[in-house]
Specification:
The complex is a heterodimer.
Chain A: H1 16-41, H2 49-58, H3 63-97, H4 109-123, H5 131-153, H6 157-181, H7 189-194, H8 202-221, H9 223-229, H10 233-238, H11 243-265, H12 271-283, H13 287-311, H14 320-343
Chain B: E1 2-11, E2 14-24, E3 29-33, H1 40-47, E4 55-60, E5 63-64, H2 70-74, E6 77-80, H3 91-96, H4 111-123, H5 139-152, E7 157-161, H6 169-184, E8 188-192, H7 196-202, E9 205-210, E10 213-217, H8 219-224, H9 227-232, E11 234-240, E12 246-252
Parallel strand pairs in B: 3-8, 3-9, 6-7, 7-8
Antiparallel strand pairs in B: 1-2, 1-4, 4-5, 9-10, 11-12
The chains are: A mainly alpha, B alpha/beta.
Chain lengths: 344, 253
């Protein structure tokens, strides 16, 4: 029998996988909602969530209501937005650089955004509204540098990652220098370097929120391009994708997302690496599904980690960046070990 | 018809080929053959519009490639490269990507797109693999799925770079037979092939690349000429099979 003969299986237009994906998205949405309410309910200060909501609805400025409105609600929104933005930025960077180890914090995009933000604080301490823009510009310049070095040297995946690590180290040194030179302007710089959401307000969150929400929508729209780029440059070109333009646009998008998140969360690590890898294990590498699943997964992870970091040593609070590093570090090592095992 | 006029290509100061002029018509299988490093893949990349020639121009039905936008060209010319990496998605997910040139502004696949994907999977003998992840497939099965990706693009001109590499004999014959079927449907099939007996057996015409020049010939002319010796340093011996067909064996000189 000729193994290439046409199959006798009737052509089916059924798409059973769509049902499973819909269920997964529904479960993730439910988890996100649950995590969001838990983030509102639990914290270093005990409070009754329902009483707080009731007080707010009645216009009664009770302590519970004020904590809910001015501390926990902006903080929960910030955690969800930062998680979604950093996870999707990770998906995009990994697709563009063809490198599963690339992530906004690994290749220095977060550090670039951080340097932009710290530089802005040092030079214009009162221009808090311009922080997302400064973070975006910092992330973009970093990303373009890495991209240019990679393109110029025809670098392979590992070289791109190594270049990114070197650039990140350089940028972190610059941030630390600014901290020393401008100790008054760059207040709370240690928290910024670790990453966390304490002190986030709606007014600080608003401009970044717009950028992130728009960026997430655009990322869903460009999922096809990410799918095609994963097949290699030649196939992408033969399918009609302008590879260089698509890569540049996607990097801009990743920078907008990472820059927006860093502007209020500081240098949160591992979200952009951990979440896309976990999401791939469930939904594979179809970016049309991977992007929304990663966005939801990132939001859930950061919300839950932030909540744990607040209650773990209450009344003391652990910056969420530390907890994410505790979770992300071992995960990164396991990735290397699994890769090594496959190689062997 | 694709017409190449004085095509030249060089990497920096190193010329790969120069002043190649030839034409490719629909309904035929063309084999690009030549020794290692003769520029076969580069010529294929130029012909399918993903690399620009240093000099000269290629025309599709009399219109220069440059006059087409990328998506229009992608609806005419498709390429199956040697994939070094395939993402861990299902076969159907991969083949769906072949419909990218046909997506509208909404980026949603229409029923026609879905039907084209199923047709391509069926035509490539990969419909039974549709739900299976690519990383669980054998080399031959993956190659079938890659062919389905090419077919989903549904172009009159298809280009393949060493499609039989890593395939065992029965899979090779299956794939080459598939390429013949495509040409019978009226498509122009252009494949870089390393295996000379197979190229002679399955191609209608050969494009022989040698020292930066191109010789266009038929398989039987090639076998009877001095080209096997000049280009590959081998001798070609015709063999008559019991059913009367003539095949060719290449031996070192």
């Amino acid at each position: 029998m000729n193994i290439w003969q046409k199959s006798s299986t009737p052509i089916s237009l059924n798409k059973p996988k769509h049902g499973k994906i819909a269920v997964l998205l529904a479960v993730l949405c439910a988890l996100l909602l649950g995590a969001f309410f838990c983030a509102l309910a639990f914290g270093s200060t005990p409070m009754n969530l329902f009483r707080g909501i009731g007080d707010l609805l009645r216009g009664d400025p009770s302590a519970d209501g004020l904590i809910l409105l001015h501390i926990r609600l902006p903080r929960a929104c910030a955690a969800a937005l930062a998680g979604a933005a950093l996870a999707v930025a990770g998906v995009i960077i990994q697709a563009v650089l063809h490198n599963p180890m690339a992530a906004p914090n690994v290749i220095g995009v977060n550090s670039g955004a951080g340097l932009g933000a710290v530089l802005m604080l040092a030079v214009f301490p009162s221009a808090l509204g311009a922080l997302p823009l400064a973070a975006f510009v910092g992330a973009m310049v970093t990303c373009l540098c890495i991209y240019a070095i990679s393109a110029r040297t025809g670098a392979n995946r590992m070289t791109v990652t190594l270049v990114g690590i070197a650039v990140a180290s350089l940028l972190n040194a610059a941030i630390n220098t600014l901290k020393i030179l401008y100790p008054d302007s760059v207040y709370d710089a240690d928290s910024f370097m670790i990453g966390g959401f304490s002190g986030v307000t709606f007014s600080r969150l608003f401009p970044a929120c717009l950028i992130i929400l728009a960026g997430l929508l655009v990322a869903c729209f460009f999922a096809w391009e990410m799918d095609i780029l994963a097949l290699g440059d030649d196939t992408a070109k033969s399918l009609g994708v302008n590879v260089k333009r698509a890569q540049l646009l996607l990097l801009l998008l990743a920078c907008a997302l990472a820059g927006g998140a860093v502007s209020f969360s500081g240098l949160l690590g591992f979200v952009g690496l951990l979440v896309p890898h976990l999401a791939r294990r469930f939904v594979g590498e179809n970016h049309r599904i991977l992007v929304p699943v990663s966005a939801l997964g990132g939001a859930i992870l950061v919300l839950v980690c932030d909540m744990i970091s607040r209650v773990l040593f209450a009344p003391y609070e652990l910056p969420v960046g530390i907890l994410l590093s505790f979770v992300g570090g071992p995960f990164f090592i396991s990735l290397i070990l699994v890769g090594r095992k496959r190689h062997d | 018809m694709i017409e190449a006029r004085d095509l030249s290509f060089s990497y920096g100061a190193s010329p790969v080929f120069s002043d190649l002029s030839f034409s490719l018509t629909e309904g035929k299988v063309y084999g690009i053959v030549g020794p290692n490093g003769s520029g076969k893949t580069t010529l294929l990349r130029v012909l399918c519009g993903i690399a620009k020639p240093t000099c000269g121009e290629a025309f599709l039905d009399g219109i220069p490639y440059d006059s087409f936008d990328r998506l229009s060209l992608a609806r005419q010319l498709s390429l199956m490269p040697q994939f070094s990496y395939l993402p861990p998605v299902t076969a159907r997910d991969l083949v769906e990507r072949g419909r990218y040139p046909y997506l509208g502004a909404t980026r949603r696949m229409t029923p026609e797109d879905r039907a084209a994907v199923e047709r391509a999977l069926s035509q490539a003998g990969a419909i039974d693999l549709a739900h299976r992840p690519l990383n669980e497939l054998s080399g031959g099965e993956r190659q079938r799925v890659c062919l389905a990706l090419l077919l989903a693009q549904d172009t009159p001109y298809v280009f393949l770079d060493e499609p039989t590499t890593y395939l065992d004999l029965s899979h090779r014959f299956g794939l080459l037979s598939q390429l013949r079927d495509l040409s019978r449907e009226g498509r122009c099939v252009v494949a870089v092939l390393h295996d000379l007996p197979q190229a002679l057996r399955w191609c209608d015409e050969l494009l022989v690349l040698h020292e930066g020049t191109l010789i266009s010939t038929t398989p039987s002319e090639f076998a009877r000429s001095s080209l096997p010796d000049r280009v590959f340093g081998v001798a070609c011996h015709p063999v008559i099979l019991p059913d009367g067909r003539e095949e060719y064996v290449f031996l070192p000189k």
